[in-house]
Amino acid sequence: MKPQIEFKHVLGELSVNRHDPCEVLRELVSNSYDANCNKIYYAPLNTERGFAFLDDGSGLSTTKKINGITPWEAFFSIGRSTKKKGSAIGYKCQGTKLCFACSRILVATKTSAKSEWIFKIIDNPRSNLDVSFDISPHKNEQDLETIIRNFLPDPSSDTDAAITDLVDYASDFKTGTLVFIDGLDTENYAKYFTLNKNIEESYVFNYIRFFTRHGDVRRLDKLHGFTQNQITQIASKIGEAELSCFSNKKRLIIPHGFPYLEKPNVEDAKSPAAVSRLRDGRFFSRAAKAIQVGGKTYSLILAIDGNRRAHEEYQNLDRKGKTRSGVRLGDQRGLFISVNGIKICKYLELLENIDDYGVLADAESSSHFCIIIDGEFDLVTNRNSLSKKAFDTLTDPEFLKEFKKFLDVQKKTDSVFSELISRLKKESTENKLNEQMEILETARNRLKKRERFRINTTGKEHLFLSPLPGEEYLVGVLYATLANMLPPNSPYVDYWKKIVTFSTQGIDSLGIVDESISSPLKESNVVTVEYKYDFNNSGPFNHALAVVDYIVAWDVGLKNECKIHDSYTCFGDVKKSTKNDFEWIISDIESEDGAVYKNTVRVICLKDLIRKTFSIKFSTPDSKIG
User: Fold this and answer.
1) Is domain 278-432 annotated with CATH 3.30.230?
2) Residue closest to 81 by CA, chosen among 30, 141, 130, 123
3) Domain 7-194 is in which class?
4) Model confidence pLDDT, tens digit, residues 106-162
């Protein structure tokens, strides 16, 4: 018996373990539920940097083929599965491969009450497990404890206690599967896989509750504030297993279902409209509904818990400045997509497509609620995000219509939700107005410290400010304005063009060479002008050199006798003008494929041109002056 492996998947799958170490547990839990288990057992093995994972599911048959492969073979094979899409969680058969990122692995299984445990031990599975490796199980009628102790003949005291407890737990199993891992290849094993004395403070405890099939988002309860009708619609057909953890020589139970906060015994009197600061709210509301779109059923779940209530009652989740279990509170607030009960990814952007509810898409707004959309959505291979097909479903007009109808009904019938929306919209408007006012006030204050210059014409003095980085538009405004204020008989008149257009796309401006001729707008009398704050050789020019006549920059840092390139495959030679120190010429312009262009580009340093033309000085207030 040989494994069937599509090697193109291997590196991608095993590298996922680096991104999220406990993902291996998520996949094992999913497989246990797919196998219709009633009991699951997890024990971290601190000394061995591994774990034991056991369930009483249907086991891994070595004889019964499904989809052309037996479950035993499928466990060791990449890209092959006995599961069908829609009928199980782990139908892509990728997750269990995360188990192979270890020094040694023991897989044991029992498929009927009359059969014995069979097993396989593999050293360094990532290197040894390939299409030539014999995965045939050992069938020498050993009991489970003997199999485990032969795998780990000299366990530490804690591991020995875990083995004893595991064997006792499995004593009445008629079927089941055991995965025993030694030397898991993961960073910071102690942080992710071990259990604290207070189990609820552990990362693995919270990971199982928030991110695995055992933490099924469809598991609603009256204690959470959901009605019986809502529970019947969403939770009537989901299975529930007992998940036991063994640590510190004690066996503890991890509750089933997503950890929605329970309905408070005493309602906070202040609704969203009444609290002085929304982030201090402790308001509460629940809603859930099953909808059908395109013949498929989806579950919509809304859990509103004011920001302050969430901070106080999710005591073991990390928040700003405080590290607790390692699972962040902010990652559990907002809108999420779930597949068969497993919360997969956040998707706040979906709310932006719903009229009247876009305000909920704001990250700060999402601190008050959790919306979960559950269904049989397609996932990418590693099942950490949705496929394009899933996103297409979620943005389908019919789906959005049903989702909006759910929100509309809740807004109409639930004062907490209605007030929350109204309050968020009001604060969003106020925040945006305050932000704009602050920007304006800052800009006004900065005016006093900016470089400026004055030009006197016909006895009247005009004040101008120098541009700052990013103010290319002001470079153009100054160039166009000052062209109309030239001193009589200025020797620099040829450098000032009459600007007749401004554009935010394409060429910045068109200018006229000679305004006095009979047809000033004829093609030969029109030139193209580009504006820059700073122009140099360091990067490609973002317009085609072949179509530009003038580049007017506040500051020019071109190197003489050097090449300059644009972003359209053209390049030219830069030479400093011999007439004026504020001018450079770009000539001999050609493209990389050999095309030659006859135009030349004149580059003008506007600041120096202003000095020459108007004989003025630039000044800057002392930094201590307000």
Assistant:
1) yes
2) 30
3) alpha beta
4) 999 999 998 999 999 999 988 888 888 899 999 878 899 999 999 999 999 999 999
